[in-house]
Design a protein that fits this description.
The protein is of the alpha+beta class. The protein is 40% helix and 22% strand. It is built from nine helices and ten strands. Strands 1-2-9-4-7-10 form a six-stranded antiparallel beta sheet, covered by helices on one side. A four-stranded antiparallel beta sheet has the order 3-8-5-6, with no helix packed on it. A hairpin with a 2-residue loop joins β5 and β6. α1 runs antiparallel to α2. The longest helix has 17 residues. The protein is globular.
Amino acid sequence: MKFDKHFPTDKLKDYIKYYVVSENDVESEYKVLPSAGLVIGFQYRGQLASIKDNTLNKLTSAGITGISDSYKVFRNSAHIGTILVYFTEIGFTHFTSNPANELFNLSLSLDDIFEKSSVNEVEEKLAIALTDHQRIKVVEHFLLSQLKDIQADKLIIESVKLIYRSKGTIRVKELNEKLCISQSPFEKRFRKVVGTTPKKFTSIIRFNSVLDNLNETKTLSEICYENNFFDQAHFIKDFKHFTGQTPEQFKRFL
């Protein structure tokens, strides 16, 4: 199995965190936990499917997955090869006029967002590319061709920084006060750029902070209170929503 990270050219680094070239020779089923940005995937060989309520849904070879507030389950065919594009928290809206929140909890065909002919061209070039370097270049060329000359929303960028700084424990009311903006216009701008509400986004960041803590020698009680959960019952309920498991069950597989 291969899972190699590659970093974008300077022109894209404010919008793309990194690319991943992923290959797996064995058919497998796996869980993807909530993260803070949208993801594009190009299968240059093999097939990917999502599983929900015990139903298998085959995905197109070029797709995009929005921010999710719960885990997703996927199954890959044997001998699959994929290029993944991980957007920064504010990156997606610099490539399309579609509001990011329209993709919340969804996995869509990429030609629902971009022109079908452009997506087909990328797939054709990826099919004949021989190296990871060539594949990344194909994807970067596509992204650069779609990049729009628009002003970044500095208020939303600052709000994302504040949320990370607090490890997802800051309250939306406190964000409104710090940024000197009322709740309704702030939430509208945040959803459009980031892809979900400020409240859900902070809960995703807090969840990922909890995951980092699970790798440390801390008790679950310490993790619960360090991350500002009201009590352990709330902590366990939230964790199970994000992962499908209790913290104790999840920790056994680390």
